[in-house]
Design goal:
By secondary structure, this protein is of the alpha+beta class. The chain is 30% helix and 16% strand. Strands 1, 2, 3, 4, 5 and 6 form a six-stranded antiparallel sheet that branches. Helix 1 crosses helix 3 and helix 1 packs parallel to helix 5. The chain is globular, with a radius of gyration of 16 Å.
Length: 189
């Protein structure tokens, strides 16, 4: 798959991507339109496990996620607020296929409204550190890949979210599906 076919893969630094995606995420109600989180808030969140990757720290300095299940708000997905106990590193033992996840960790960043989390992965056997994975327990993307490789980097993940304004509801889109099959070669064609 050529990067030229995927607008979210255009080479841009994270600062540029954050400036582009923040208004889109705010329009979807995913983040507040104002300032981001303080260093003290980020440090407190890191205290629940260990230091976040610099890209994740920059994201939280730039934006303040809203509560996914806030009264009166219906969102398809959301990032965990900086105070959420869910925003933490966890062992990926038990993810499938098991041989890909031996010794891997995931920083759980958010979830769909249906409870499917997405996370920053480190130590995956075939995906580079910083890849974003999504649990697809309902098989919306593919019935045969439960732990879907969703993006090659955090910047691509954010740009992809802004492009589609969605987390996982566009599997019929040719660009979305093409990249999905590239990143998840065991998925049904």
């Amino acid at each position: 798959m050529s990067d030229e076919q995927h607008p979210w893969r255009e080479p841009r630094n994270l600062e540029t991507v954050l400036a582009e995606v923040k208004p889109v995420l705010a329009s979807l109600g995913i983040v507040e339109s104002g300032a981001g989180c303080s260093e003290a808030e980020i440090a407190a969140a890191e205290g629940r496990s260990h230091r976040f990757p610099e890209d994740v720290r920059a994201f939280y300095r730039s934006v303040r996620p809203t509560e996914l299940f806030a009264p009166g708000a219906r969102k398809e997905f959301g990032f965990y607020t900086v105070g959420s106990k869910e925003l933490t590193w966890k062992s990926m033992e038990g993810a499938e296929p098991a041989e890909d996840w031996v010794g891997a960790q995931g920083l759980f960043l958010g979830q769909s409204a249906f409870g499917d989390p997405f996370w920053w992965a480190e130590g995956h056997r075939t995906a580079p550190n910083g890849s974003i994975f999504l649990l697809d327990h309902e098989g919306n993307l593919s019935e045969d890949v439960m732990f879907a490789h969703f993006a090659r980097s955090f910047a691509e993940f954010l740009a992809k979210l802004a492009y589609f304004k969605s987390l996982d509801s566009k599997p019929q889109d040719e660009l979305f599906r093409g990249e999905y099959l590239e990143l998840n070669p065991s998925a049904k064609r």
